[in-house]
Design goal:
By secondary structure, this protein is an alpha/beta fold. It contains 14 helices and 17 strands.
Length: 363
């Protein structure tokens, strides 16, 4: 039976979450085949759960320990980060480990941490979770990196809203993970449909330049949008497609009146980008024309540094993409700190569990 174009063993239709179907022998690695014509290269849930995204040396480790009769040794492992950040990615880790029967302690999502703080502690048979080390570290490294970048944006924005627009900058398989992590870090919403839904939110966003280019007029599109979309969709309209942004803003405000909630500035770098002076001018012209209710939403190359400057000029909210999506993952390490309750560690590390008052028992 195939999943996502890859030949997988389903063991008579049994649940993939049953831990006995994880990789444990190098012969399974050799037998694993990718079917020709696979459409997407991202791993399926089945491939992750069965262990096909792990580093191969963990499969070798399991086979060696099996041969020595040591695979079921009970160990205590701790995961720590190499630099400070914001914790995210916990639900996926818990989901992966749920069927293993291990005991888990972790800090809460959204909590900050320092370098070397233990973020998760896992106690159980090594055979149950050892093959997942690569996946666990990868989940946390990426999610914590994205959440940390979003927290930096949150701190710069203060009480002004910002939405994560980063889905277009990463592989679609991980875009929802990234946007959910951004919400954990402090984003008020996400444009990626699945990312928002995973966060318990509805996706947020208006329409791109494409619709204005095809229709040929900003006001015409805005009026059609207003007529078609439900009241939950904000009437925020791009104003940089055809005309001077200030001129287009006033055209829109005159045509839509109180129905216009905001304008979005996304001026490309070829035209100088969105500058504080542009924001300041549009704010002044709106106020002078009696449209003080219209907010200014800024997107395109937004960073924490730019947020402070643009907010001071009159920007009310922001769309942030590449600053979050391009965040460097936070390097994670998993160390065995006890074997059958006996403190142990490799050279350079302190044997035994590392105290952290933020850790909470989860299973």
């Amino acid at each position: 039976m195939s999943a996502g174009g890859v030949v997988l063993k389903w063991y008579g239709g049994a649940s993939l979450l049953n831990s006995k179907y994880k990789l444990s022998r190098m012969s399974q690695v050799a037998d694993f085949q990718v079917e020709p014509g696979r459409i997407l290269y991202s791993a399926t849930h089945a491939e992750i759960i069965q262990g096909y995204t792990t580093d191969v040396y963990f499969v070798k480790t399991r086979e060696i320990l099996d041969s020595m009769g040591l695979a079921d040794t009970v160990v205590t492992a701790e995961i720590f980060a190499r630099r400070p950040g914001v914790f995210a990615g916990l639900p996926e880790c818990l989901g992966l480990l749920k069927p293993t029967g291990v005991r888990i302690w972790a800090i809460r999502e959204g909590d900050t941490f320092e370098a070397k703080d233990p973020l998760m502690r896992i106690v159980g048979k090594y055979s149950e979770f050892g093959v997942y080390e690569t996946a666990l570290l990868g989940i946390l490294a990426s999610s914590c990196g994205w959440a940390t970048a979003a927290r930096e944006v949150r701190q710069a924005a203060g009480n002004k809203p910002f939405i994560c627009f980063g889905a277009r900058h990463v592989h679609p398989a991980v875009a929802p993970v990234m946007e959910r992590a951004a919400v954990v870090g402090g984003a008020d919403g996400a444009s990626c449909i699945l990312g928002a839904k995973l966060s318990g939110l509805e996706p947020r966003g208006t329409v791109p330049h494409a619709v204005f280019l095809i229709a040929g007029d900003t006001v015409r599109v805005a009026q059609e949008y207003d007529a078609l979309m439900g009241p939950e969709d904000a009437r925020i309209v791009l104003v940089d497609t055809f005309k001077d942004e200030a001129e287009e803003t006033l055209r829109l405000a005159q045509a839509m009146g109180k129905r216009l909630q905001g304008v979005r500035l996304d001026t490309p770098g070829e035209r100088g980008g969105v500058t504080p002076d542009l924001v300041r001018e549009i704010r002044a012209r709106l106020d002078q024309a009696g449209h003080s209710h219209v907010k200014i939403f800024v997107s395109g190359g937004v960073t924490p540094e730019r947020i402070g400057i643009l907010a001071a000029a009159g920007a009310d909210s922001f769309g942030v993409g590449s600053y979050i999506s391009g965040a460097t993952p936070i390097d994670m390490t998993m160390d065995i700190k006890e074997i059958e309750g006996r403190p142990i560690a490799k050279r350079g590390r302190i044997p035994g569990i590392t105290p952290n008052a933020k850790l909470q028992a989860l299973s």
